[in-house]
């Protein structure tokens, strides 16, 4: 196909507004996927994604479409992940497109994710086509939401497409709009090869499969290519397009989207955002915008059963092959034994990895509370990065501690502005701006320490607003603050896995709350268990768990057997997630207690 008849586009939407359903419908209407092989949500193929209804990984699909003008077009849909943790990947997949469909649920309206994705699309100079989805719903308010998109996003919505991905309404209008409004790729076939990697995954047989968009020049099977950021060179064994299953082709030129395999060992060697060029005739400059997606949130992962340490190591190695953003290194904790300190892009990424380790690799893990990276300047004027609170140098050895700050944009109905401001204030937030769009849409902008958000901020935001508010965030830099290390002592011993870094002004409050929460969570033992919070040598809060008086089974004495059995089973189940710290059994929840202090 000539470049003039190619259209590359993405779909951007807030979660649940219908992106996957619309993608499915487009594949169906263009006969890209036969009716009988159509599984619902073809593009979301990871089990976990399907269960949670979230889109994590990008995929692409090539469709053939005969437009009303009688011409045949190739439409490449490049899917974007929908979550803030993956915004770098969203931005790179948008960079591979000339246009984007902005899908907004007509019964809901503009949300934080809608806006964040629109900003990314505008940064990449994309033509944005707004679409009102779910107009089949009785609660749909197309006029109100169209006005909202004009107001909040600033797009002309006079002729906005009204669609229902579910009922198949407006799908042809969408295809026509893509052909007419999205510009064709620039015709730069004669220039040296530059192709943008927007996704990759590890395949046990072929090595890493790289998804890319050719920006300039062309690439053929057998070519020796160089990845400009990593500097590594590979010979392309297999080249193809995604329709949406992989179909091999001999060559791809500027404007086209495809995949290749070249015996690459891990996705970290072919990172999203890297530029592919020809090894013997390289382009002078890489495509703009490459950065490495760095982990921002860290936690310790420890096997409950020490025998599972090698299995955990193995599992992390395997996951890493497929996840360039995951980092891990061995960690030894006096309380927890051998495990790993793992780094993630954000909270969702952390949850996904933990869940996969337990589900796909059958590991029983204890997870410590999430932490951020602190920058500590020592008295020797050395700057070190601390991702583990227990490793914060003592106060007499540090000059200053800096912590990461983020800009958070929340969108909420006006009625919840008060409670959200209160939440942000209690998390050391700095008010920046408030924009009133409509009764149901007020934007609230705060700067917050990331550490205060990685705990339960998102859950709080949702519960305080009955689920109506949404948020997005971006890292804005490091700031110095009077931060101290809070140690938790159980039965007289400091538990490194419970140590945390907190603001000096909140230390007393957090110390007291932690101690009473732990008292609730740690079961009684045969002996009295003191629990204390301390800063340095100074104990700031203390409680104790009284000793067990009676044998638990005594209650069932003479009672029926099945009740006794049930009780034992219940105890066994509880035990599964216990870690023995000295002589005290501490349950998993205790390590997450800091997330539930309010
Ligand atoms: P995504 O998170 O943006 O990918 O959203 P999904 O495509 O997974 O859709 C979220 C939910 O909305 C699913 O239950 C869909 O069946 C439903 N949905 C999507 N499009 C429509 C529509 O046009 N009308 C109605 N009534 N429901 C829809
Ligand atoms: Mg989806």
From TrEMBL:
Belongs to the TRAFAC class translation factor GTPase superfamily. Classic translation factor GTPase family. LepA subfamily. One of its GO terms (molecular function) is hydrolase activity. Its EC number is 3.6.5.n1. The keyword tRNA processing does not apply. SUPFAM superfamilies: EF-G C-terminal domain-like, P-loop containing nucleoside triphosphate hydrolases. CDD domains: EF4_II, EF4_III, LepA, lepA_C. The keyword Zinc does not apply. It comes from Synechocystis salina LEGE 00031. Keywords: Cell inner membrane, Cell membrane, Elongation factor, GTP-binding, Hydrolase, Membrane, Nucleotide-binding, Protein biosynthesis. It comes from the Bacteria. Residues 4-186 form the Tr-type G domain. PANTHER family: TRANSLATION FACTOR GUF1 HOMOLOG, CHLOROPLASTIC, TRANSLATION FACTOR GUF1-RELATED. This is Elongation factor 4. HAMAP family: GUFP, LepA.
């Amino acid at each position: 196909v000539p470049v003039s008849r190619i259209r590359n586009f993405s779909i951007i939407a807030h979660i649940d507004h219908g992106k996957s359903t619309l993608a499915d419908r487009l594949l169906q209407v263009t006969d890209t996927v036969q009716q009988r092989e159509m599984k619902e949500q073809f593009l979301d193929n990871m089990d976990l994604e399907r269960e949670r209804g979230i889109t994590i990984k990008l995929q692409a699909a090539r469709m053939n479409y005969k437009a009303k003008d009688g011409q045949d077009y190739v439409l490449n849909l490049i899917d974007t992940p929908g979550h803030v943790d993956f915004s770098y990947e969203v931005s790179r997949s948008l960079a591979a497109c000339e246009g984007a469909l902005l899908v907004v649920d007509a019964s809901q309206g503009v949300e934080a994710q809608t806006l964040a994705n629109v900003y990314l699309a505008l940064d990449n100079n994309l033509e944005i086509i707004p679409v009102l989805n779910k107009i089949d719903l009785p609660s749909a308010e197309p006029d109100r939401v169209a006005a909202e998109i004009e107001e909040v996003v600033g797009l002309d919505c006079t002729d906005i497409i009204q669609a229902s991905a579910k009922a198949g309404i407006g799908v042809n209008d969408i295809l026509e709009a893509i052909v007419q409004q999205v510009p064709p790729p620039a015709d730069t076939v004669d220039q040296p090869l530059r192709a943008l990697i927007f996704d990759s995954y590890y395949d046990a047989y072929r090595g890493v499969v790289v998804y890319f968009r050719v920006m300039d020049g062309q690439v053929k099977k057998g070519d020796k290519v160089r990845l400009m950021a990593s500097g590594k060179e590979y010979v392309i064994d297999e080249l193809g397009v995604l329709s949406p299953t992989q179909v091999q082709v001999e060559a791809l030129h500027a404007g086209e989207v495809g995949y290749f395999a070249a015996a690459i060992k891990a996705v970290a060697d072919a990172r999203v955002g890297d530029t592919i060029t020809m090894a013997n005739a390289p382009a002078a400059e890489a495509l703009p915008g490459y950065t490495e997606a760095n982990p921002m949130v860290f936690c310790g992962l420890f096997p409950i059963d020490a025998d599972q340490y090698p299995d955990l190591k193995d599992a992390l190695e395997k996951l890493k092959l497929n996840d360039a953003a995951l980092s891990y290194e061995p960690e030894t904790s006096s309380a927890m034994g051998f495990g790993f300190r793992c780094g993630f892009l954000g909270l969702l990424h952390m949850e996904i990895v933990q869940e996969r380790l337990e589900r796909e690799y059958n590991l029983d893990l204890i997870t410590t509370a999430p932490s951020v990276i602190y920058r500590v300047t020592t008295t020797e004027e050395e700057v070190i990065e601390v991702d583990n609170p227990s490793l914060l140098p003592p106060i007499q050895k540090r000059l200053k501690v800096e912590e990461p700050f983020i800009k958070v944009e929340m969108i909420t109905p006006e009625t919840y502005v008060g409670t959200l401001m209160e939440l942000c204030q209690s998390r050391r937030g700095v008010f920046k701006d408030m924009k009133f769009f409509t009764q149901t849409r007020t934007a609230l902008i705060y700067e917050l320490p990331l550490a205060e958000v990685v705990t339960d901020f998102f859950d709080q935001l949702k519960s305080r607003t009955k689920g109506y508010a949404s948020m997005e965030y971006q890292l804005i830099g490091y700031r110095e603050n009077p931060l101290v290390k809070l140690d938790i002592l159980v039965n007289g011993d400091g538990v490194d896995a419970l140590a945390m870094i907190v603001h000096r002004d909140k230390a007393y409050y957090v110390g007291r709350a932690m101690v009473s929460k732990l008292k609730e969570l740690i079961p009684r033992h045969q002996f009295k268990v003191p629990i204390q919070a301390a800063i340095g040598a100074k104990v700031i809060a203390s409680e104790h768990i009284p000793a067990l008086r009676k044998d638990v089974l005594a209650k069932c004495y003479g009672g029926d057997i099945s009740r006794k059995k049930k009780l034992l089973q219940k105890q066994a189940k509880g035990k599964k997630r216990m870690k023995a710290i000295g002589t005290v059994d501490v349950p998993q929840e205790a390590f997450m207690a800091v997330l539930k202090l309010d």
